[in-house]
Amino acid sequence: MAPDAEDRGPRPPEAGAARIGIGPPVANSCARTRVSGPFTVVVALGEVDIATAGLLSEHLDAATAEPRPDVLVDLRDVDFLDCSGLRVLCRAEARARERGGRLRLVGDGAPLLRLLRGSGLLDRFPPLPGMPGERT
Predict the structure, then answer these.
(1) Nearest CA among 94, 85, 19, 81 for reference residue 57
(2) Which of 4, 70, 87, 111 has the most CB atoms within 10 Å of its CB?
(3) Judging by DSSP bridges, how do beta strands 102-106 and 70-81 pair with one another?
(4) CA 51 to the chain's CA centroid
(5) What is the tens place of the pLDDT at every residue in 34-59?
(6) 59 closest CA partner among 103, 19, 23, 24
């Protein structure tokens, strides 16, 4: 017996859903997305670790789905970032490059610089001290 439509669970989002005007993922405890001029800004919050990296990844996947994405990842409100978070950032940066765009990090804290330097990712992700065009 075939299941009725009411018996089926919600359909997973279709690939490229962000490209057809559905928009960014809903803000969650670890990330939110907004547009600022020519940039898609993904603001990461709190702790980004193995338990929460997927929540950030949802936003980065949507932000890098378009051709030629110009993504800024604002890490200024991140309290902790581990290798799971770095993996998500590296994957998103590679996706942006594959689509002819770029992904840059925003953060001015010494812990972020130490983490990037220690992981060998400082050349790949030289952090911007603030948002482009933001007044200090």
Answers:
(1) 85
(2) 70
(3) parallel
(4) 15
(5) 999 999 999 999 999 999 999 999 99
(6) 24
> How far apart are alpha carbons 19 and 22 in whole angstroms?
7
**Contact by Cβ (8 Å): 116, 95:** no
How far is residue 112's CA from residue 76's CA, in Å, rounded to a whole number?
9
> What are 57-103's pLDDT values in tens digits?
999 999 999 999 999 999 999 999 999 999 999 999 999 999 999 99
> In this structure, are residues 51 and 77 in contact, taking their beta carbons and an 8 Å threshold?
no
**Cα gap 70→87, rounded to integer Å:** 19
Taking alpha carbons only, the member of 111, 110, 107, 109 closest to residue 125 is 107
Rounded alpha-carbon distances, angstroms, from residue 34 to 73, 86, 98: 11, 21, 22
Sheet holding 39-48, edge to edge: 31-36, 39-48, 70-81, 102-106
Quote the CA–CA distance of 61 and 16 in Å, as a whole number.
Answer: 10
What's the CA gap between 75 and 90, in Å, rounded? 14
